[in-house]
Design goal:
alpha+beta; Yope Regulator, Chain: A; about 35% helix; globular
Length: about 100
């Protein structure tokens, strides 16, 4: 599957998620709050705690900087397609995090 197909499959598999847009990019939200986004064929996750650190520790992962102006969004981690096997779990962690803040 392509990164976009994988993103859509994961987002649609999570109960209570809604497909939407964030910064003009496809995302999934939970009760109006984004938790995953597709950007440059990579998935971006809103995370905290251990899940945030583990995602950031993956080779090539980085804090999400959609503007490219060295102003990363501290809770958002951009994870390369090389780690597609981790995306489902990270998406669930991201959704759980967003739901805990509603």
């Amino acid at each position: 599957m392509t990164p976009e197909e994988t993103f859509l499959s994961i987002g649609r598999s999570l109960e209570g998620s809604q497909q939407s847009q964030m910064f003009g990019k496809p995302c999934f939200k939970c009760k109006g709050k984004a938790f995953i986004c597709l950007f440059d064929n990579q998935l971006v996750f809103k995370l905290t705690g251990d899940a945030h650190q583990e995602a950031l520790g993956l080779d090539g992962a980085q804090l999400f900087d959609p503007s490219g102006k060295k102003r990363p969004m501290k809770e958002w981690v951009q994870v390369p397609f090389d780690y597609v096997d981790n995306w489902q779990e990270l998406a669930q962690e991201a959704m759980n995090y967003v739901q805990s803040n509603l």
